[in-house]
Amino acid sequence: MRQPLAPDLRRSIEHDSPVEPFRSTGDSDRVQGRPRDARLHPCGTVSRRATSTPIPYPQIPPDILHVGPFRLRWYGVMYLVGYVVGITLARRRIASGRSLLTQPQVDSLVGYAVIGMLIGARIVYMVAYDRATLARDPLETLRLWHGGLSFHGAILGMTAASVLFARRVKVPWLGVTDTIAVCGAPGLFFGRIGNFINAELYGRVTNVPWAMIFPTDPSHLPRHPSQLYEAVGEGVFVAAIVWWIDRRSHAGGWYRPGTLTAAFLLTYGVTRFFLEFARQPDAQLGFVLGPLSMGQLLCIAMIVLAAAVAPRRRSSTGTDT
Predict the structure, then answer these.
(1) In the chain, which residue ranges form alpha helices assigned H by DSSP?
(2) Residue 18 and residue 290: Cα distance in Å, rounded?
(3) Cα–Cα distance between 197 and 181 in angstroms, integer?
(4) Which of 21, 44, 183, 283 is deepest in the core (most CB within 10 A)?
(5) Helix ranges (DSSP H) in 201-293
(6) Which of 23, 64, 62, 76 is nearest to 45 (CA)?
(7) Which residues contact 236 (CB under 8 A, 6 or more apart)?
(8) Contact 278, 233 (CB under 8 A)
(9) If you ran DSSP here, which 8-state letter would residue 54 be given?
(10) Which residues pair with 292 in a beta bridge?
(11) How do residues 241-287 score in pLDDT, each as one tens digit?
């Protein structure tokens, strides 16, 4: 069940917001029965100007296979593909001598990462995005099939899992998180494609030519396909940058544990921060600090954390500066 709009989001819909990125100026005759002079607000309002005809949303059934109580869903398959890609990349790093872990250790790390990701993603989602439900029914946290996972929570959960794993196998903790960062980043692409197939986490109302009307949107207005923006930005751009730094730092002899972790936190935090301007804020929260969403505040925390874990430059005397 959808939560009612938060007061801040309702106000931003009723009045123009100071932040209006991703806007085009094209006109068309009507938008969902609105007059010609309506203009679409990025947060979900329609005011003085209208949009061009949105492109059709591809109606992809969320279930690949549904037999009795058994359901094979695209979203789960996308996560599985992401993990397969990550394991394959980890093996390539081991073969090239760029990993502090052995193959058996990587196989064991996957189990830690999956459990940590699910626990962290669910807890942070309930605490940061759905506190009302958490206060009313704390056991809802255990009902993962109802949906609701936070990527930032997944990062925290995998971080805690990597600490436990590093202690068990006696390797540098940041060496473990480097492996997760460089090998796990491409999986973000598949996760966002899963969001798109589910028609969830869609973008703000817009009049760009590639706007879509998502079947899960109760307002049925043209919106940014922000899941696709995030798939490319997070799962391709961020992954390519981190992978490039991995190769260059080892080839140049300047790699130290934490290099890739910091690179991922920084590039993801910055990329996601700006992409959030095209994404619809969560209905139960709206904007939490001026024009910023909860996701953007968590991205700022990621950027700060990147500075904290980044290896310090070594001076000519061999000391850190």
Answers:
(1) 7-14, 74-95, 103-124, 131-136, 151-169, 173-184, 187-197, 226-232, 239-252, 259-275, 294-309
(2) 9
(3) 25
(4) 183
(5) 226-232, 239-252, 259-275
(6) 23
(7) 186, 189
(8) no
(9) P
(10) 289
(11) 999 999 999 999 999 999 999 999 999 999 999 999 999 998 777 88
- CA count, 13 A, side-chain hemisphere, 177: 29
Residues in the chain: 321
Q: According to the model, what pLDDT value does residue 301 have? A: 94
Amino acid identity for residue 47 in this structure: S
* 85/79 Cα distance (integer angstroms): 10
Q: What mean pLDDT comes out for the span 60-73?
A: 81
Average pLDDT rounded to a whole number, residues 31-47:
40
Q: Which residues pair with 63 in a beta bridge?
A: 73
**Of the listed ranges 18-27, 190-199, 254-263, 267-276, the one predicted with least confidence:** 18-27
Tokens of 153: 């929570």
When pLDDT is cut at 50, 70 and 90, the band that residue 313 belongs to is low
Cβ partners under 8 Å of residue 104, min gap 6:
none
Higher-confidence residue of 12 and 311: namely: 311
Q: Are 106 and 87 in contact (CB under 8 A)?
A: yes
**CB atoms near residue 139 (< 10 Å):** 7
Gap between the Cα atoms of 189 and 231, Å rounded: 4
Question: Which of 248, 149, 230 lies closest to 192, judged by CA?
Answer: 230
Confidence of residue 314 (pLDDT cuts 50, 70, 90): low
How far apart, in whole angstroms, are the C-alpha atoms of residue 185 and residue 193?
14
